[in-house]
Request: fold
Amino acid sequence: MDLLGDDAVDGVADNDTIYILDSTVFLEKYSGRFSDKACVTVYEVSEEIKDPYAKIQFDMLVQSGLAILLPKDEFVRLVKDKLKDTGDKLSGTDISVIALCMEFAGRGKKAIVVSDDYGIQNTVKALGLKYLAVSQKGISRVLKWRRKCTACGADTDKEICDVCGSETKFVSKSRKKR
Reply:
């Protein structure tokens, strides 16, 4: 595996369309669809894969050209800033996948995140980037998540309501149509 920097990004960026693969591709056994395409992922994706068959798929795709890249910190920060707006709860792996997409898009490439994770899709769409769902339909609109009290309905950012002391839950507010 290569943890690649600018030179590797430039090498992959020679292609018209870059697919940034999330672990969904391997866990749902869709890696064969991408064996002849320009694909990249982040190291953390390989760490998420525990299923032996999915691990074999990952290794085979690496041998056929899947590049393992590390996104620049500036793009990771931009994704984290967007999460403050959308309210999505994403893992470090998810953030890195999206940051890599932003980096390629910033170089003028058609970059597409491949994931069935709705949080990833929501954040990608909110950033004006593209995603591809593999085994599900995908999101239909961008959502903004917030906490709301289950008793009095107050909006808060805490697990316990400041107004009445009851528990809160995450609810979404539709932002815009797809």
The two ends are 36 Å apart (CA to CA). Confidence is low (pLDDT under 50) at residues 1-5, 174-178. The chain has two domains: 3-132, 141-177.
